[in-house]
Design a protein that fits this description.
Blueprint (H helix, E strand, L loop, with lengths): L32 E5 L7 H13 L4 E5 L3 H16 L6 E5 L3 H7 L5 E4 L17 H25 L2 E7 L5 H7 L3 H17 L5 E6 L3 H17 L8 E2 L7 H17 L5 E2 L10 H10 L4 H4 L34 E5 L16 E4 L4 E4 L6 E5 L12 E5 H6 L6 E6 H6 L8 E5 L6 H9 L3 E5 L6 H14 L6 E6 L5 H17 L5 E5 L8 H21 L8 E4 L10 H12 L6 E5 L5 H4 L5 E7 L2 E6 L2 E8 H14 L12
Parallel strand pairs: 1-2, 1-8, 2-3, 3-4, 4-5, 5-6, 7-8, 9-12, 9-18, 12-13, 13-14, 14-15, 15-16, 16-17, 17-18, 19-20, 20-21
Antiparallel strand pairs: 10-11, 21-22, 22-23
Bound molecules: iron/sulfur cluster (SF4).
Length: about 650
């Protein structure tokens, strides 16, 4: 039934082959390793060494450095020598694209080389070519000829290799046969792995990165299944989401992709790619990994599944009936928790994206306006703005005067014994133990209910997934809101954990809404509580967007930068963001170089790509439309391009 991870209910790491990388082994029972990549020009030895040291001190166990040509590959020796001289033995990884000769030099110097099967022996021409079996085989023979020398050098020098597929840089050959799919990504790596195994070389780590978290998760799962099916070795997995972006968006997106796989015991090393200094990446990776150190001991047992109705390799949203604006084809909804506030005023709703203008005496909703507020035992005393609805505890609802405008939240027993219900929409709070045959029968008869699923289990995502599976296996199409509560954690941990738990379910098409509850957080003064509510509201929208289930803001697919980067990515991303972040649902790729940028920005609607010093190429989708725009005019020209497509809207300053 399940062939992509050891268990869907119990935390177990996938048993992988141990690969030695310069004395820091990965895979097997070794800890999940943290790694990152330098951004300094590889020819700048001193700068690279200093950056490596900052990265090591931030927690990097491996460091990757780009080697675009032979001269950079050769300079890896100087960087390595300088690091060793200063007492740092961190294994180095050379990052190779397009240049087998640089790979062959680097493999003699560093502890691991990374090759991208999409461009190791192929130059991308964006051609669709019809291959028959013979011509496809001829291509494979050509690749073998280019690739085998590197494999032999690695074998001879004890150098490990990462076969790192990128969704955005699949070869024309793979695209022509398999399309832009997880299967294409997997097959791209398998072609190279088969060659390695034929040569008796097994020191391999594999990655399946994409900027689209659904594609990324599906590709890793499919890879595991295909390796097993084909009797290939269980190679360790390097996890990463490419071009995740910066700040909270980058962290949320990384957690959704990487965390989802870690929950199922997949992953032996992690690289979080942020458009920030590389030393900012290791702590995020470590925080994601640390969550699993004691997971197996702390988790409460979950009974095994008898049948799994979820397709792990393709996105299908769970079928649900529509109850008001929940479930069916509605986007997943955001419920904000205001239950610890008493005496809520108009202005307080700003924390959930509904801004009250005194001047006009009306509310404006921004892009992150919550759909529901949960007020517990403290119903709101005024009329809510359009587009916002209220959920209150059952007793408070029974006592309220205006019952039609608010909806009750009942415990399961309250629901089963309730004489009074709302005519259109009732919420039921349920944990796995509450999903009894009696509740299932009642749900079948009632088209007004929405479940709010929650858990106290440390192994939270799999337990909530089990709730969904139980409902699906019993034919229940009631919409479900995923409720998570976190106490005693830092805000950074809450961000990563919520993104993992909720994102992991959304990726599998589960969940019609999200409620990040404040109930377990320490008591706070009202202003701080509003600040927390604001953060959790933004986080909820961020998770829905990162899991690609609800687009509420502009998406930036920015590369993490490396030695090839032609402009200051952080500064440029901030500048582009400042001018465009009110454009709902537009995806903008911001890539540091023309070599990999266009391929790696994947499904962006527009691309801003460095082509030379102070020169930018602008793309519409995969097509270059302005080849060499001076950097100081490039953002204006980008906006012009968006305007030409009628996708530009003027930013509106909301009044308070
Ligand atoms: S797109 Fe960015 S990270 Fe990728 S090679 Fe170019 S500069 Fe480096």
């Amino acid at each position: 039934m399940n062939s992509y991870c050891p268990s869907l209910v119990e935390y177990k790491r996938r048993k992988t082959r141990v690969v030695n990388i310069g004395g820091v082994p990965v895979g097997g029972d070794n800890p999940i390793r943290v790694q990152s990549m330098t951004t300094v020009d590889t020819m700048d030895t001193e700068g690279s060494v200093e950056q490596c040291i900052r990265m090591i001190e931030a927690g990097c166990e491996y460091i990757r450095i780009t080697a675009p040509s032979i001269k950079e590959a050769e300079n890896l020796q100087n960087i390595k020598d300088a690091l060793r001289l200063r007492g740092y033995n961190v294994p180095l990884i050379a990052d190779i694209h397009f240049t087998p000769n640089a790979a062959e030099v680097a493999a003699r110097i560093v502890e691991k080389v990374r090759v991208n099967p999409g461009n190791y022996a192929d130059k991308k021409k964006f051609q669709v070519i019809e291959y028959d079996d013979a011509s496809y085989q001829a291509e494979l023979d050509r690749i073998r000829e280019r690739f085998v020398p590197l494999v032999r050098i690695c074998k001879e020098h004890g150098t490990a290799m990462r076969i790192g597929t990128n969704h955005g840089s699949l070869s024309d050959r793979i695209l022509s046969r398999y399309g832009d799919t997880p299967l294409g990504m997997v097959e791209s790596a398998l072609e190279f792995i088969r060659i390695c195994e034929d040569e008796g070389f097994f020191d391999i780590v594999i990655s399946m990165k994409a900027s689209n978290t659904q594609v990324m998760v599906q590709a890793y799962r499919l890879l595991v299944q295909k390796l097993d099916d084909e009797g290939l070795q269980p190679y360790p997995l390097h996890l990463g989401v490419t071009e995740a972006g910066e700040a909270e968006d980058g962290r949320i997106k990384s957690a959704v992709g990487i965390g989802t796989l870690l929950e199922d015991g997949l992953g032996d090393t992690v690289r979080v790619s942020l458009t920030e200094a590389p030393e900012a990446e290791a702590p995020v990776a470590q925080a994601l990994i640390d969550r699993y150190t004691h997971r197996a001991e702390k988790a409460q047992p979950i009974k095994p599944l008898c049948k799994n109705p979820i397709d792990p390799f393709q996105y299908h949203r769970r079928e649900t009936v529509e109850v008001e604006n929940l479930g069916g084809l509605n986007v997943p909804r955001v419920v904000a928790d205001l239950s610890r506030l008493t005496d809520i005023k108009y202005a307080d709703l700003k924390a959930v994206g509904h801004l009250y203008s005194m001047l006009l005496d009306k509310f404006n909703m921004n892009d992150l306006g919550a759909d529901y507020i949960y007020t517990g035992d403290n119903p709101i005393s005024f009329m809510l703005p359009n587009g916002l609805k209220e959920i209150v505890n059952y007793t408070a609802w029974q006592q309220a005067e205006q019952r039609d405008d608010r909806h009750p939240l009942m415990h399961t027993e309250e629901y089963l014994s309730s004489a009074e219900r709302h005519g259109k929409l009732n919420f039921i709070l349920a944990a796995i133990g509450d999903i009894s045959p009696e509740l299932i029968e009642a749900l079948k008869q009632d088209r007004t209910t929405v479940l709010m699923l929650h858990t106290q289990n440390e192994h939270a995502m799999p337990e909530l997934r089990k709730c969904f599976i139980r409902l699906m296996n019993n034919g229940i199409q009631t919409p479900c809101i995923i409720k998570r509560s976190y106490g005693d954690l830092t805000p950074d941990q809450v961000q990563l954990y919520a993104a993992t738990d909720v994102g992991g379910l959304l990726i599998d098409g589960l969940g019609d809404g999200v409620l990040l509850s404040t109930e377990l957080l320490p008591e706070q003064e009202k202003q701080e509580e509003l600040q927390t509510i604001d953060t959790l509201n933004k986080l909820s929208f961020g998770i829905l967007q990162a899991a690609r289930t609800r687009m509420s803001k502009t998406e930036y697919i920015s590369c993490p930068s490396c030695g090839r980067t032609l402009f200051d990515l952080q500064e440029t991303t901030a500048m582009i963001r400042k001018r465009t972040d009110h454009l709902k649902g537009v995806k903008i790729g911001i890539m540091g170089c023309i070599v990999n940028g266009p391929g790696e920005m994947a499904d962006a609607d527009y691309g801003y790509v460095g082509v030379g010093k102070d020169k930018i190429a602008l793309y519409r989708g995969q097509t270059v439309v302005k080849k060499s725009v001076p950097a100081d005019r490039a953002v204006d020209e980008l906006i012009e391009l968006i305007r030409e497509d009628s996708r530009w809207i003027e930013p509106v300053q909301l009044e308070e």
